[in-house]
Amino acid sequence: MKDKISDAVVKRLPVYLRYLEDLLNEGVEHISSNELSGRIGFTASQIRQDLNNFGGFGQQGYGYNVEGLHREIKGILGLDHEYAMVIVGLGNLGRAIANHTKYYKMGFPIIGMFDVNPDLIGMRINDIEVQDSKNLPEFLRTHHVDIGIITTTKEAAQMIADQMVEGGVKGIWNFAPLDLKVPKRVPVGSVHVTDTLNSLVYHIVHPDQRS
Amino acid sequence: MKDKISDAVVKRLPVYLRYLEDLLNEGVEHISSNELSGRIGFTASQIRQDLNNFGGFGQQGYGYNVEGLHREIKGILGLDHEYAMVIVGLGNLGRAIANHTKYYKMGFPIIGMFDVNPDLIGMRINDIEVQDSKNLPEFLRTHHVDIGIITTTKEAAQMIADQMVEGGVKGIWNFAPLDLKVPKRVPVGSVHVTDTLNSLVYHIVHPDQRS
């Protein structure tokens, strides 16, 4: 692998993975960069350039081996083993994520659920009992947890992130509308849902500003 | 306003807006680019450069007027009036969005809800009755709808997008794990939730690749 893969390429890898999964399900064995381009919408040259970052799995006149490429990208993305997760905040969005059984199948089991709301504590979601958030530090001390999911209010998010960092999580998946301050060694993947709505509206009211 | 604002700036505007809302709530009247930088984490020179795109609202030695800047960015983002929305797909994620009353307060009322699941049709969420998805085209013909939200399966998403475009929506907010094919005049804001988890894991397993 080259020294440094650009963030833009890293963001496109999951997109490739989604399309390769479709191809696998359709029983397609080989695909050219042109055919992939027709499906994904990226240009064929963009695709070739992206996949060359990883040494290139394509062969001239033969295309990419779908199964091999799928396996390689899964490996590069680190999706070839399991990541234990906890989730803090079981409001509407938290419950939607906790109920999304696909994550369990993908190798992302949620092993702990936490909330401050007495109405939610004790509730069971996918066989996990929601605990009081004050139990989080103790839970992190006594369980191996790779990823902490934050679906709390904006006000609670930084404190929960601090506890997760202290508790040794390897990464934080953040849905709170806040840019968390954490040490560099703990990567944060943020999903600012409402920001995407705001950007969409910008493009609706400024049709001249579309790329 | 300058001729073309880069996508990167457009994506940062909702971030500025979130922090300015906090400042308004705290009663802060003026803020310097340095103070803003301390909160948001962008550099002060980045902030000055971004806000200069819109003519610059700051005054030397005085900083930005929080209320004025907030109002201007709301206006630029088109958030100074209402957008009627419909949502198709009331699974876990769809229900989380439909239940998020903040969108109603922000000026994004959801006026129609649709699903194919007989168990969900007839259910009421925030006083709106979930209808059969087959009613969507008729609903779009008879109601003014600005934004269509897609929270269906990947398989259904393109067909629903086609119906939304045909029905005259001005933009699509897409949560299905699919890159929709729509005419250029209809902007799409996509939230690929699982992709962000995959990218996070990449950064966990490749600590040397962090920016």
Walk me through this protein's architecture.
- 2 copies of one chain form a homodimer.
- The first copy, chain A, is an alpha/beta fold.
- The first copy, chain A, has 2 domains: 7-76, Arc Repressor Mutant, subunit A; 85-195, Rossmann fold, CATH 3.40.50.
- Chain A is built from 9 helices and 10 strands.
- The first copy, chain A, has helices spanning 7-25, 33-40, 44-52, 66-76, 92-98, 102-105, 136-142, 154-166, 193-205; strands spanning 30-31, 58-59, 63-65, 85-88, 110-115, 124-125, 128-132, 147-150, 171-174, 188-190.
- The first copy, chain A, has a 7-stranded mixed beta sheet with strand order 6-7-5-4-8-9-10, sandwiched between helices. In chain A, strands 1-3-2 form a 3-stranded antiparallel beta sheet.
- In chain A, a hairpin with a 3-residue loop joins strand 2 and strand 3 (63-65).
- Chain A is globular and about 60 Å long.
- The two termini of chain A are 31 Å apart.
- In chain A, 34% of the residues are buried.
- At the A-B interface, helix 1, helix 5, strand 9, strand 10 and helix 9 of A face helix 1, helix 5, strand 9, strand 10 and helix 9 of B.
Instruction: Work out the oligomeric state of the chains in this entry.
Output: homodimer
The CATH homologous superfamily of the largest domain in chain A: NAD(P)-binding Rossmann-like Domain
| Low confidence ranges of chain A | none
What is the rounded Rg of chain A? 20 Å
CATH third-tier fold name of the largest domain in chain A: Rossmann fold
Count all strands of chain A and give the number. Answer: 10
Which shape of chain A, going by the Cα principal axes?
Answer: globular
Lateral strand order in the biggest sheet of chain A: 6-7-5-4-8-9-10
CATH-derived architecture of the largest domain in chain A: 3-Layer(aba) Sandwich
CATH top level label of the largest domain in chain A: Alpha Beta
Can you count the helices of chain A? Answer: 9
Q: Please tell me the overall pLDDT of chain A.
A: 90
Amino-to-carboxy terminus distance of chain A: 31 Å
In percent, how helical is the residue content of chain A?
Answer: 40-55%
Biggest interchain interface, per-side counts: A-B, 64 and 63 residues
Task: Supply the helix-strand structural class of chain A.
Answer: alpha/beta
Q: What is the element string of chain A, with H for helices and E for strands? A: HEHHEEHEHHEEEHEHEEH
State the domain count of chain A. 2
Tell me what portion of residues of chain A adopts beta-strand conformation.
15-25%
Largest sheet of chain A: 7 strands, mixed
